[in-house]
Design a protein that fits this description.
alpha+beta, 2 domains, isomerase
Length: about 250
Amino acid sequence: MRQVAEPDAPWALPVLHEDAVLAVVDKPAGLMAHASPMARGESDFALDRLRRQFGRDVVLAHRLDRATSGCLLVGFDRAVAAELGRAFMSRTVDKTYLAVCRGWPEARFTVDHPLDGGPGKPEKKPALTRFVRLATAELPVPSGGFETSRFALLACMPETGRWRQIRRHLKHAMHHLVGDSSHGDGRRNRIARMELGVHRMLLHAWTLGFVHPSSGERVEVVAPPDAEWMRLFARLGWAPPLPPQVTAFTGGA
């Protein structure tokens, strides 16, 4: 295994898996994955850090929003990254995200709701996300005509990869993602800031499972919830969730 060029550098990203052709790293919230038209005035990108960190070419196999933390898969050349990208497109990559939403949804629910591709891409395409409720909490703070404010911890399994899919599907289900300034509930976000100290979007790419393009073996990677998530779990009385077997969440959801 190659050694990280500067393993103790403060800018280096935690490596969750590395081999000769690919790696999975843990992207922090707030860091853009790569330069784009959305990156006005930005100069710090995960892709640039990783090229310096690994001392070689690095190509993203998929994308994570700036505000989303967790598993980011990269290839060490364009051919490998393209093959991994095709695996995402063909839905052979298993992804589980952690999210905190407003309200208490059903124990298991599915949102099957078409989504457009974002700005400049008005065509709507099929989009499906499965959700499993892992924990609930209630704060004695009035909100939206209710005497309390309810929150739930979710495992989210998107079966398609549309633009901001989980965020928009939770909005569609009226269980808005906490901390989401674009598609969330402003009142609930304010309560989360004031009562829970939440100053970020609560979406984390928790697990990633895929077939290795060279060996054909299954690779399963987990990005542990970071310190901010752990403080939130403690504040709400939630035990940190154990990494799931994805198949345990998909049946009957």
